[in-house]
Amino acid sequence: MIEPIAKPRRKNPLARTRLPTSPPHPRSRKSHGLTRAAAEGRFMLQRCGACGAFSYPARDACPACLSADLAFVDAPRRGTLLSETTLHVPADVHFRERAPWRVGLVAMDCGPRLVTHLHADCEEGRPVVMSFQLDKSGQAVAFAYPERETPNMTDDRQWREMTADPKFRRVLVTNGRSVVGQEVVTALKSAGASILFVGVAEPWKPFRGEEALRALEGVQIVPLDIGDEKSVMDLAADIGGKVDILVNTSEHVRAGGLLDRQGTSVVRDEIDQSYLGFVHLAQAFGPAMRARGADGVNSAAAWVNILSVYALANWPAFGAYSASQAACLSLSHCLRAELRPGGVKVVNAFAGPLDTEWFQTVPPPKVAPRVLASAIVSALKRGLEDIYVGDVAEDVRQRLAANPKAVERELGA
Amino acid sequence: MQNTIRTPYDRVVMAVPVTIPYVRYSIESAQWWIGRALRSLVDGAGITPRDIDGFCVSSFTAGLDSGIGLTQHFGLCVRWVDTIPLGGASAIAALRRAARAVQAGDARIVACVAGDTNHVDSFRFTLENFSRFNQDAVYPYGAGGANASFALIARNYMRTFGARREDFGKIAVAQRANALRNPNALMKSPLTIEQYMAARPIADPIHLFDCVMPCAGAEAFLVMGEDVAASLKLPAVKILATIERHNAFGDDPVQVRGGWAMDVDELYTMAGVKPDDLDFVETYDDYPVISMMQFEDLGFCRKGEGPDFVRQHDFTIDGSFPHNTSGGQLSVGQAGAGGAYLGVVEAMRQVLGLAGPTQVKDARIGLASGFGMINYDRGLASGAAILAGPGA
Amino acid sequence: MDSNSLMQFAGAVASGAVRVVDLTFTLSPDFPVIVLPPEFGQAAPVRIQKISQYDAAGPAWYWNNLTFGEHTGTHFDAPIHWFTGKDLPNNSVDTLPPRDMIAPACVIDCSTDAARDPDFLLTIPAVEAWEKRHGRIPQRHWVLLRTDWSKKGWRDYANLKDDGAHTPGPDAAVMRWLVEERSVIGFGTETIGTDAGQGGHLDPPYPAHHFLHGGGRYGLQCLCNLDQLPPTGAVVVAAPLKIQNGSGSPLRVLALVPSA
């Protein structure tokens, strides 16, 4: 049984902050089939298209029949813990600092055996449920946890290394003016975030929900105009060392594509607010977060981008906006690579049209801001990297996988 | 399990057992250690490097060099070359391949060498780059290396067959006693069962004295025709039988047996001896649990009886079951791929009566085994050889 | 004027006999800007981006790139800014006559009224009352509306409510009257616009813009330190950037005031 983690005390200013280290990260190319599964919270194994046998570790031929038809498919998660060990003297720095560390060997009901990280409540000979998680190196690893929920389950030390649970973490929500921003604040608060810094640009402009936001315990309204480099830098100078999770809720949505727009000022605004805003945030907050990836219970853990699913495929009705989102998506991959040495995850939440004023004329289904907020918190708790929120986002994802050309033609129809 | 008729190793012998004494850390390269072993082979046989026309090498730390690059490094002009990356099974495999090459006339004198250096970071480098499955699916799980993998195997074995830490300790303590008679062993101080039991845990149930100490060193021998050995006046070791098996029993959920169990009958049949006829046994002892498993799989007791077998025997040089007479890797050190050769080279000395302080009295026939390559969740490679001295 | 007089003037500035009052807010990213409904084009906010600061990007020098809309910070409105002035000659900041950049100012103090009512509107009777005390507003003078609005915190300064900004300004009649009957060179305020926050509901909407620019006159807004000016006798120097076909620009506004 797991002791609940305690709220971290204030840091000793005389103590050096321990630098983050990565667990071993080299992987074969094929093994990244598991990385994809872990990023989306799926449990996938290779299954032979010819003989149906599941296999693991990642292979290039079926060990049962030598077929090369080995697609990664969603697999049954249940298995039995055959044997376990606790590592006291690991060979690399990352695990040496985290020893003792528990691993085990699980026989899956569907056949393969997995060497796996263990939740502390797993018992030898008992059933376990498996997931693939992204570890601090950003690579997929197997993780076993008990079949039934146990007390304080998510406080497990090894599990917390795989996730970005908001509990006791300090979060910067970049835009408290938006409904999405306010819902994210509420959801994070419920998830146990200790401090919520909420950015408000142009604080001389009142906004709806302001009073309720100010009344929330733990919320600190901070001046933040992400389009303004200095504003972002100034805030980072104040609180950059205390931001464990950053959720970029800034949104700048305008309808329209290219030919029916006059000039570039709207496009420029989109780029300023979305893309350059992201750049400003990353440059101001990224370095400290990367350096604080191993800073105790409330280490820096995650950076969340809210992206339109049309970052993946341009929707001409919101064509320039889609392009600004695509730019942010591309940049998120850069940020992911650069934050990886700190073990800080970059979560991309791809959403379909939100149920907000800028998508007023778009027919349903639309994503309620509250649903988006709760999906983000869930992704942080589960340690996911890519989530698709709402029916439209899931629809676009699946259609893109099936035929990107069809998506292009249909969105442009 | 079904054996076809195997060609015996007639008129092929092993000679010139060579050990380049180990050091814990070395600033020299693997090539340096292999070179020292080659020189000792040449000196020991009274030949010149030109006389070596077959070369078989194993090393984890030779970097980009395989056997072919090393021929130029060492000025060897050979007509047969092999590089054997089978870890702890490399010596048995080298012996098998070299013997057949000599028997077929493809080579006249084959130098079989394993050498590794041990820089301060080379062991970790080896762990990190061991194999694809290891890199994908084992090492990222706590970076425990072989300790973690064998811990999972040991724990399951203990639970399944009732082995206790004390049983493993008995093996380790006996080997230490043997090592104290071997001037080349890195471990110089006695080990008591109490010390064994009190050692710090590394990866439960593996504790400190269950683990080998990585070090630098080299081991080697020559394989040649019986007539060549006679003309060089070299004491010769006969190869009575060998077996080799890879990726056996893949369906066992956790490894409880090695490939020996598949081929052990053939081993004794080919050798024309019974387990009781052996004067000593050199098992591959990367962990005591693996030695215990081999007592079962190599026919000294049945599966599951390993713990009892251990309790009933004395494994010291003068004991009821002389085992790992040099001290084994647990007490001599594990010089990378040299660890595979340690038992084979010691067995050669024993049957030749050249073992000096570790000599088992009147040893004529002995067994040496190999085991290696924890690729994913189990050791994949296994092998064994029964060797005999001139008088056998 | 002979050169001697001009030298005397320069000497008076140097000696402090003529005081120079800076009527300008610092141009900064966080200064409030005009708010339009979001579907309209927006003024680019002030952005100051460092190019280098004695660092790898420029080891010995410090400089910035600036972006801002023409109507940000303390700024000048040229006639071309409004549709009523679009066809006038010399109606943009690059063509306006340089002599118009220096002119005397009448300062009408409505700070008490504005403190009482954020929607306070300047009317003809109020100006006539001022003229009773200080004399008729001469031609080609600036009229500066002092409200002390520039002393407020920025939230109160913008004073945005659900129905828009609530800040003082002129009514329609007084603007037409100042342009047509007093021939003012321009009208200046402390608030974000020359018009009142609710000026869009007047007839015509935004009368300051409508009449000033339709008459070829100028606007100044976001002024400060008006409380340091005498009702009459100050001279305003307001030279906007020479932006090609520019409708206005941030600028440094100085007032020259005789020492008491």
Automatic annotation (TrEMBL), chain B:
CDD domains: SCP-x_thiolase. Gene3D superfamilies: 3.40.47.10. Pfam families: Thiolase_C_1. Signal peptide: none annotated. InterPro entries: Thiolase, Thiolase-like, Thiolase_C_2. Residues 266-374 form the Thiolase C-terminal domain. PANTHER family: ACETYL-COA C-ACETYLTRANSFERASE (PTHR42870), NON-SPECIFIC LIPID-TRANSFER PROTEIN-LIKE 2 (PTHR42870:SF1). This is Thiolase family protein.
